[in-house]
């Protein structure tokens, strides 16, 4: 097992983090739309060392039929980590963490979809983490939203998602693996950037009320940056403004 060691200091005298980023800087990001031929919509994303695929199938008929909603579609979101995605090989199959992330991500994503347009239908969303390096729940949501748009599903807006956190008494954007493992707090956020409606907000760690506000504001700025990358990925595939 390869452990991520805690650095002597997370922020140096010049205000740089262990990976050389500024406090408010995202890790390098790459987003591609329509990467899987057999899915109705798909996306591949890299954020730092995270590598994640998202695939969307539907809207299609719900099976078994007793799960149908007569006036809207349902969203089924499955978050999965490949056994080789982490240094300590993960046991195959969904664990408690994967189920919890799937549930909150499903709720965050369906807030943006016009579900009433597809009664008695289901939209299946699958995300597969092939390499994990902190922030997979938020990065997966960012990819899943692009995959939904790629599938042609009507949406109020894309969902962009990232996290902020606290290290060395400072609020920073987009925790990397050492910061995530050994930092003081983690605040995942998802939002519809045009309206700034938040669809996911969680916190792990201890923050003051003022720090929570600062962390949310910083995460929202990160979401807006990712939103531009999401739009660029779709424009690159399909053109348009």
Automatic annotation (TrEMBL):
Pfam families: RNase_PH (PF01138), RNase_PH_C (PF03725). It is found in: Cytoplasm. InterPro entries: ExoRNase_PH_dom1 (IPR001247), ExoRNase_PH_dom2 (IPR015847), ExoRNase_PH_dom2_sf (IPR036345), PNPase/RNase_PH_dom_sf (IPR027408), Ribosomal_Su5_D2-typ_SF (IPR020568), RNase_PH (IPR050080), Rrp41 (IPR011807). Residues 25-154, 157-222 form the Exoribonuclease phosphorolytic domain. Its main location: cytoplasm. This is Exosome complex component Rrp41. Component of the archaeal exosome complex. Forms a hexameric ring-like arrangement composed of 3 Rrp41-Rrp42 heterodimers. The hexameric ring associates with a trimer of Rrp4 and/or Csl4 subunits. One of its GO terms (molecular function) is 3'-5'-RNA exonuclease activity.
């Amino acid at each position: 097992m390869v452990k991520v060691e805690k650095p002597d200091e997370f922020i140096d005298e010049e205000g740089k983090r262990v990976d050389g980023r500024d406090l408010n800087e995202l890790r390098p990001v790459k987003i591609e739309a329509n990467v899987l031929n057999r899915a109705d919509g798909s996306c591949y994303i890299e954020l730092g060392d995270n590598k994640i695929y998202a695939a969307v199938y539907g809207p299609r008929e719900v099976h078994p039929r007793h799960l149908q909603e007569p006036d809207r579609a349902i969203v089924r979101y499955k978050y999965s980590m490949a056994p080789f995605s982490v240094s300590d090989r993960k046991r195959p199959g969904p664990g408690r963490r994967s189920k919890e992330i799937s549930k909150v991500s499903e709720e965050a994503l369906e807030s943006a979809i016009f579900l009433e347009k597809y009664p008695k239908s289901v939209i299946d969303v699958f995300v597969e983490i092939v390499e994990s390096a902190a922030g997979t729940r938020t990065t997966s949501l960012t990819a899943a939203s692009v995959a939904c748009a790629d599938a042609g599903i009507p949406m109020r807006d894309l969902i962009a998602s990232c996290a902020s956190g606290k290290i060395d008494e400072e609020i920073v954007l987009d925790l990397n693996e050492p910061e995530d493992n050994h930092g003081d707090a983690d605040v995942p956020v998802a939002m519809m950037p045009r309206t700034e409606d938040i669809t996911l907000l969680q916190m792990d760690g201890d923050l003051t009320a003022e720090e929570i506000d600062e962390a949310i504001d910083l995460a929202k700025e990160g979401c807006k940056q990712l939103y531009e990358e999401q739009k660029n990925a779709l424009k690159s595939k399909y053109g348009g403004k």
